[in-house]
Amino acid sequence: MYTYPVLLSIIFIVIFAGCQSEMPVVDSTTTFQNETTVILIEDFSYKPAIMTVKVGTTVIWIQKDSVRHTVTSNDGIFDSGLLSEGISWEYTFNEVGTYGYYCIPHPYMKGTVEVVE
């Protein structure tokens, strides 16, 4: 027969197995209030394409395509250089504003980070 600790473990697993924190649905326009957030580079696009963050937030771009891409601001404030598959790059936004960016080899790839108070 089962001992008390084994039964307690089984009960604990059954009760808490369904308790998972839900992740927000990320669409083409997503607002986060964390200090760090992620934008994926995949399928020749930035996902999400438009991100709203608070001042001081670090955005991490994770490159998931098999071809190299960049994260280059329209106004020359930041440039990741060429990123290979599996490489990430980050930038901390310390001033309110709208920051457009694109991929140098694929200029049709565009994104925007809006920084708010």
TrEMBL record:
This is Plastocyanin. It holds the Pfam family Copper-bind. Transmembrane segments: none annotated. Its cofactor is Cu cation. Binds 1 copper ion per subunit. It comes from Methanococcus maripaludis (Methanococcus deltae). Residues 41-115 form the Blue (type 1) copper domain. One of its GO terms (molecular function) is electron transfer activity.
